[in-house]
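Retro notes (design track)

What went well: tokenization of the new backbones is finally stable.
What didn't: we kept losing track of which sequence belonged to which structure.
Fix going forward: every design gets posted as structure first, then sequence, in one message. First example under the new rule, 139 residues:
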């Protein structure tokens, strides 16, 4: 795996970071108190963001990465070039397994930066985060 933890000086797309931070502030996490914000840049260049949204029936909650993908797909885009995931965790939290598979469906080669409030980051491609991801070939 080429996924790597990088120092605070890593260059992060400032627009994506800002959008991920804003989404983080809007997270609905009354049960875990663990807020997550995500922002991705669609192939068109447009930014889509999402926050985690919990539910009393835990399995019905949505991760921030899933929320961002749903916004992108709902707008008609089918791929993205970069994703920023923002949390306050140290080290920075990365997408869960389910989110990794959902991201892989759309853009296995897209870059991923997981970053926290201290500027620590973990970087790699979607495929780095999910080696040997499952994909059906479709026309």
């Amino acid at each position: 795996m080429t996924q790597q933890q990088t120092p605070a000086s890593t260059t992060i797309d400032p627009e994506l970071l800002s959008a991920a931070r804003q989404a983080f502030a809007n997270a609905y996490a009354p049960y875990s108190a663990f807020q997550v914000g995500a922002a991705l840049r669609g192939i068109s260049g447009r930014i889509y963001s999402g926050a985690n949204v919990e539910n009393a029936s835990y399995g019905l909650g949505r991760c921030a990465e899933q929320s961002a993908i749903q916004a992108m797909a709902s707008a008609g885009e089918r791929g993205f070039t970069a994703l920023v995931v923002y949390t306050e965790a140290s080290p920075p939290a990365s997408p869960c397994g389910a989110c990794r598979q959902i991201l892989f469906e759309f853009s296995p080669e897209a870059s991923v930066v997981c970053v926290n409030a201290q500027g620590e980051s973990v970087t790699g491609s979607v495929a780095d985060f999910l080696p040997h991801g499952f994909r059906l070939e479709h026309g």
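Added context from the reviewer: The chain has a mean pLDDT of 93.
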